[in-house]
Amino acid sequence: MPAEGCSPDGGRPRGLLKRAYGRFIKLRGCPREIARGFAVGIFVGFTPTLGAQMLIAVPLAALLKSNKLAAAAGVWITNPVTVPFIYGLTYLVGSQLTGLSGHPSIGFVPEITLVEIAAKAPHIFWTLGVGGIVVGLPMAVAGYYFSLAAVTRYRERIQQKIAAGKERLIHHHRIRGKKRR
Question: What pTM does this model have?
Answer without folding.
Answer: 0.79
